[in-house]
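In this section we walk through a basic example: taking a raw amino acid sequence and producing a predicted 3D structure, encoded as discrete structure tokens. The instruction is simple. Fold the sequence below.
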Amino acid sequence: MKDNKTPKSFETLLREATASVETELNLEDKGWINLSGTTGDVISSAERIANLKLSRLYSTKDPMGKQAIRLWTDYTFGSGMIWDTEDEEAKEVLEGFWDSKANQSVLSARGQRKSSDKLLIDG
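The resulting token sequence is shown next.
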């Protein structure tokens, strides 16, 4: 004897499966400011400065904050970026630019890491 129940449609199953996930994500997001542009919330200059100070504090005093920044930079730059080109003229120009003492604060491996850390902390 065949069961007369009709199987649920894929859309119904998908809707039921994602409903609980959406509810959990909404609970998780409570208290956070939505920066996707879908809300009218605007961060004031005072709030931005307060958040910047907190970010700087967490990057130096909080082991997890410090570790997150270090990992991001480590995986992004490793021991520094390198470049190569087959065009000899371009290579000469790039070497002059890359090796210039004036650019070492940004282009050296240490400079790249420092710039990454600053961007991750200060935005």
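Looking at the output, two observations stand out. The longest helix spans residues 10-28. The CA atoms of residues 77 and 113 lie 7 Å apart. In the next section we compare this with other chains.
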